[in-house]
Protein 1
Amino acid sequence: MMKKKLLLISIFCLVLLIGGNVQGSISSSDQVSKLSVARNDKTFIAGTVINPSIENETVTAVALQVFYYNPGIFIDEVGVVRGFSSISFTKNMFVMVWTPGPFEVFGYVLGFCQDFEIHE
């Protein structure tokens, strides 16, 4: 069972890497100001972050590589945030922020969140 989970996570990460090269990406050098991807909408996010902190149900972190997808009738917003860009989103019961290890420096996010924003 654990091998199946690890295989699924590995395939998902591979899809993120390939999809990140094909789809549009935002890096900290390309970005000028705050970009609100989905205000008050559900956005699917998955990826690796640095130093996630939670204050009043708002999570802020620095994205190493985070895939985001705002579902709709047609694809609204799809992309990858990478290059140490800051992100923030509202945490709810459908998103998981996981920080393994004793120092909680690196973390992983997975799930549907609200108010996803990309900062400079």
Note: Residues 2-22 form the longest helix (21 residues).
Protein 2
Amino acid sequence: MAVFGRRSARQRLKRATEQALSVPTFRMPDDCTPWVLGGLWPAVLDNVTPETAPIADYLKRDLQRIADSANHKLRILHETPMPDAVRATEQNRVVDSARAFAVQRVESTMRQLHNQAVEATQVLPSLGPHTDEPTRAMPRLPTPPAEEPAEPTVQEPGEQEPAEQAQPETPEQRLRRMVDMLARQEPGLRWAAGLRPDGTTVVVTDLAYGWVPPGIVLPPGTEVPAPEKRAGSLRALLGVTETAVRYNPGDPFTGGRAIDSGEAPGAMSAPEIDDLGWLLSEATRWREGLPRITHTLARAAAAGTGVVDAELDVLRVHLDTARYQLLSRYPATDSALLLNCLLLAATTALVAGDRDAANYHFAWFIECNRSPSGNAAHTS
């Protein structure tokens, strides 16, 4: 009986172990806020003063937006059929990315607080009274004897092998390099590059009707389609092309020849907008959901007055937050969030002195803000 009892217990323990191993050991919770924001709140903002209250309020709202976007992405992953291992990998990627954005937002706030603290004039310590002491001569160290130079070794000239000439690059390989350059910057989007009959090379993404988000460096010798609301696939966004190459998220990158970094990048061109600064200032005046600093800096850029680096840094963080929220909903598009992101991108570029980029993003805002009748919708 004792032997039988030990065997039964051993079998029950074996079955329990097998069942435990068959159940996933960890499931990402629906709310990842503790993992994204845990331990990031600056201690200097625990006791808010009238001077730091606006900064703390901006930081709190931006951090909550980052966490909400990550939770939205996790809910989509939870409802999408996929293997558990793939789902866990994507969930970890979402949380890690959100955590990185939150850390960047807190670091920007700390830099802003530091810049405010060091505005006071630094006082240099005073020197003591001057004394006319004689200068003491340092003892001269003995110089070691120089070594005799060795006789140079003469090498017999041998037969040099002819250098291997690189094979000419095909149009498909060139387009593939360009698509890889774009995909490495934002691998979560779909990209395409095509060679048109007139010889121009166009690159597109299907984010928000073909708008290229800020922070993307275009490959040299490329251009993007003019701002216009388009529907359809990447091929439809490219238009008529002789050769085209596309990238889907998850596709491997090719190990082809790297693009020469010395070449000028492609330009995000759009029809020039008259009175860009004034129109941008008016569009950001009462825009719902847009940080108030956006209108303040847009008005300063339109008037040509200076902007301190700390304010531009805060504006860039707001842009990064809106960009992250927009990409987290991809391939879906939130119209209100898209319009705010376009205004943030245009204002940031104009304040930084990049008028071409500001013109490009604001032209997209005008197109995306049009009503179905073709007129621009009210921006308030």
Note: Confidence is low (pLDDT under 50) at residues 20-26, 120-124.
Protein 3
Amino acid sequence: MWRKKTRRYPPARLIKLSAVVIILLSFFLFITGKFSPFIIKKIGIEKNNILCADDNQLINVSNLLERNLLFPHFKEVEKNLKEKFICIRNIDFSLSFSNEVKIKVYGRLPVASFLLLQNKEASASSALENIATPSAQQAGAAYLIDKEGVVFAKDIGAVNLPNIFLYDRTVSLGKRAVGNSENSLKILDGTKKLGLDIKISGIFDDILIIFSYPRVVFKLDGKIDMQLASLQLILTEAKINLRELEFIDLRFDKPLVRFAPKKK
């Protein structure tokens, strides 16, 4: 009786076939992220000046655990973290072949504190040299602001920063300072480089007053660089002539300057 012959593969061919199946299966698991060596099992957090989030919060919002190690979509993760925690300025990611992702988070550094006045106390028509220096008792909320103009945290008084008093209902967490608020930061940075005390200042309408000695007045919607150049010239000439300055108003083409009486 005729019997159907069983087809037998040579050993070498069988080995090749098995290898192809294993490779295809491994490739499928790799692509779908089911192969454990390519699954994120651990997240390490390193924080620098982060005031608004702890390690667990950062890990949870990143949503990186159990993701494919080779397709982690870091740009998406960075976007989500920055939207959730406004105190974050930069994020660095690094991969490890031990199923770990390390996240270095860098916080925003405050350059000033915005103290919101509860009442609008002065206007451009006031005698500017007679406006009293504002105090924290006159202010309500206080916020930290960085060099990019981002209001990123409440000021709890832990850092000694320049205080900018203002009456502005548009200032709030997560927003970027614009207009007069933004220009005030540029002016304070330039004034500090000239050696003046910028610890206390105030925004009144379109005017910035620095309550230093001498008291200095700037026009916020004017040419800031030109005003700073005029201030530098005035300070230099006063130093050369051994004159003590009391008041400088830079709002005009020809600044108003008042000197202290000469000592007898």
Note: The chain has a mean pLDDT of 83.
